[in-house]
Structure formats: C-alpha cells, structure tokens
Amino acid sequence: MFKTILLCIVLISFSKGDDSTLQLNRVVTEHINNKGERKPIIVKRDIDPICKNIHISNEVIWQGNYANSKVPEACKSTFVTCAGQTIFPMQLHKKIETYGEVEVMEFIKQMQESESMLLIDTRAGKWYTYRTIPGAINIYYKYIMKPHIFQDDYEASMDMLGVIGNKKPFDFYKAKTILLFCNGAWCSQSPKMVKSLLALGYPPEKIKWYRGGMEDWLGLSMSTTNKYKARL
User: Fold this and answer.
1) What sign results for the dihedral spanned by CA atoms 80, 214, 43, 12?
2) 99 in Cβ contact with 178 (< 8 Å)
3) By the 8 A CB rule, do 174 and 114 touch?
4) What's the CA angle centered on 186, arms 180 and 189, to 5 degrees?
5) Distance (Å, rounded) from C-alpha 197 to C-alpha 195?
6) Most exposed among 32, 43, 142, 178, judged by the fewest C-beta atoms under 10 Å?
7) What positions does the domain Rhodanese occupy (predicted)?
8) Are 202 and 214 within 8 A, CB to CB?
9) Is the separation of the CB atoms in 138 and 146 below 8 Å?
C-alpha cells in the first residue's frame, strides 16, 4: 500500500519561556561518509519553490489519495506504509526523552560544540550509506544486541559510546548523550538497541530517541545525506 501526501509549508518552532519563541530553521553540521570524507551539510527543510505558492485548503490536502491531482509532483511524497509489525509508543522509558524534528535539529546544533553527544543511525550499514540524517554516525543495533556474534564491532561501538570496561559493571561516567533513530515509528531497531543498552546499565537519562525516524524526516522534506527523492 502506498500513500501520497502533500508536503505543506510549516514553520517549525518551539517555545522558550513565556514570551518568546525560538525559531530553528537550519543547522550546519558535518557528515563523514564511508570513505572517511568530511562534507559540510546544512540541515533544513528542502522545499521545492513551486510548493510555496500552493493555497492550502481541505480540498487541496485531503482530496482523493490525500493530495489533489493538480498539486505538483514535487510537492508530494510517496512512501510505503505496510512495513513493520508494530507501532511503538511515544515513550520507551520514563527517563528517556522522545524527540521530534525540532529537537533533533537542536541536538545536532549542540553536538557541533560537544564531543559528549552522538546522533546514531541504528540501521544496517547499507541503509546508512544510502541516506541518513546529516551528522549521524552508524552503530548497527545488532552490534550492541548480540556482542557474542559481533565482538569486534561491539567493542568498537562501546568505545565510541564512551563506555569503559569489558564486562559488567561498566563505567558510564564518560558515557555520551546519544540520540537514536531508525526507519520510523514502526521500526524496532532503535528500540531494541535502547533495550540492550539499558540492560548493560547505560544511564537512561543519557539516551534520547527520535521515534519518527527516516520516514517522518523525509516526510517533512528535511535534509539528508542523499538529496535523491525516489518516485514510485
């Protein structure tokens, strides 16, 4: 089953205090590809100029398969909605914050000035290489979930996370604040990695989760490491 939606122009913001609103429209970050090459990327909404002149109404957005036939193709996004066996709740753990797109951008912004923060794509390497959120590193969730199978990758991953020690009890004093994501609210990979990290003793207050993942990120036309937009 495929769904076509209109990508509306929405001003992303969040409140800061009672009288002011902080607008976070773009963040500059650096992405390292699988060849070790560094590339500066601006994280923002990549809206086709033609989409900015659409008059928004119920008829335009919701008619037929969610988008009126007169809406330009560049302003619609097509994606698969049948993947995944479950939908995860908004909160995985009472001490783990669930993030939306604005919070992810703020995290990326703060990450530029702090080596104690990591944005982590928990999917397999081929998914990460094809397209991911700029600034993210790749730690495949199975590396943490199955250390007996992926011993070298497990140890390298724990080192990247700032965890000290070879077995329980680990030293999490220098453990990094991490933000995990995978393909969407139906994707079990980041929740499984969260569960595995908690079992190891990783402090839940140092774990953040982007529930929407790549599906929501692309649905809002956010910048990725691959600007190609598949048309089915």
Assistant:
1) positive
2) no
3) no
4) 40
5) 6
6) 32
7) 113-226
8) no
9) no
Token pair, residue 37, equals: 């090459």
Where do we find the tokens 């914050």? Answer: 97
Q: What is the 3-state secondary structure (H, E, C) of 109-140?
A: HHHCCCCCEEEEECCCHHHHHHCCCCCCEECC
Is the backbone peptide bond immediately before 169 cis, with ω within 30 degrees of 0?
yes
Which pLDDT tens digit goes with each residue over 32-82?
Answer: 877 888 888 888 877 777 777 777 665 665 555 567 778 888 887 665 555
Query: Residue type at 61?
Result: I
d(CA 184, CA 44): 19
The amino acid occupying position 2 is F
Note if the pTM is more than 0.70: yes
